[in-house]
Design goal:
By secondary structure, the chain is of the alpha+beta class. It has three domains: 2-52, RNA-binding S4 domain (Structural Genomics Hypothetical 15.5 Kd Protein In mrcA-pckA Intergenic Region, Chain A); 60-123 and 208-236, Alpha-Beta Plaits (2-Layer Sandwich), CATH 3.30.70.580; 129-206, Alpha-L RNA-binding motif (Alpha-Beta Plaits), CATH 3.30.70.1560. 23% of the residues lie in helices and 25% in strands. It is built from seven helices and 13 strands. The strands form two sheets. Strands 5, 6, 7, 8, 9, 10, 11, 12 and 13 form a nine-stranded mixed β-sheet that branches. Strands 2-1-3-4 form a four-stranded antiparallel β-sheet, with no helix packed on it. The mean pLDDT is 91.
Length: 245
């Protein structure tokens, strides 16, 4: 029983045993407390606190990444996003898709579906990402035009990107940026090339996924079956290119 509960990817066997002993687990509607009980998942229903448990080989999660943690599986010097998640995620190789800067916040997709992750990150797929950027200085229509034409950086020319100005003053501005690339520090470098230092960067959407306001920083949730299907459509070319749709 404890092995089956751990196989769902969200808990270790010891954590599963604690849930059993606490009377949180029901088999076919009856409370079960024995971690050693044999279970037939094809013939019996198992629930934790009323939520059905399934052994899903491929798993998909969305994390609201806070600032101050690295987007990495492990790091000997700093905390990573995996420290915010159950230990079972790392054991099942549920890992981040792409990266967010350490000081950036926002939507981070995690999965052990390696094929889907590879396709989402492929430059050929042009999966859009939406960033909200608070920058120093006043954003102007000239900045919008420059982003739309593609900005030359030291090692490559960024592809045309859509920049929308939300607010602008002489000291600080807020812009919404749609990128179809995801190179190292790309958003920050593009703004800096226009003379604007990024003060805060937040990813609000990745392909069809959008970060809702009700998911606080550091929290995570499973993707819905509809969201998973939308991601698969994106990489097959059958979904809209607008983030969050």
């Amino acid at each position: 029983m404890d092995k089956y509960l751990a196989a769902s990817g969200e808990r270790s066997r010891s954590e599963a045993a604690k849930l059993l002993r606490a009377g949180m687990v029901r088999v076919d509607g009856s409370v079960e407390r024995n971690p050693a009980r044999k279970i037939d998942p094809n013939a019996q229903s198992v629930a934790i606190a009323g939520e059905m448990v399934t052994d899903q080989r491929l798993q998909y999660y969305l994390l609201h990444k806070p600032a101050g943690v690295l987007t990495a599986a492990r790091d000997s010097r700093a905390a990573t996003v995996m420290s915010l998640l159950p230990a079972a995620f790392l054991r099942r190789k549920v890992l981040p898709v792409g990266r967010l800067d350490k000081d950036a916040t926002g939507l981070l997709l995690l999965t052990n579906d390696g094929e889907l992750a590879h396709r989402l990150l492929s430059p050929r797929r042009h999966v859009p990402k939406e960033y909200h950027a608070w920058v120093r200085g006043e954003l102007t229509t000239e900045d919008v035009q420059a982003f739309g034409s593609g900005i030359s950086l030291s090692d490559f020319t960024a592809k045309p990107a859509e920049l929308r100005i939300v607010s602008a003053s002489r000291s600080k501005s807020l812009g919404v940026l749609l990128l179809q690339e995801g190179k190292f520090h790309q958003a920050k470098r593009m703004f800096l090339a226009r003379g604007h230092t990024v003060l805060k960067l937040h990813r609000a959407a990745f392909g069809p996924l959008r970060l809702n306001a009700d998911l606080p920083e550091g929290a995570w949730r499973k993707l819905t079956s509809k969201e998973i299907e939308a991601l698969r459509q994106v990489v097959s070319g059958g979904a809209p290119a607008t983030p969050g749709c």
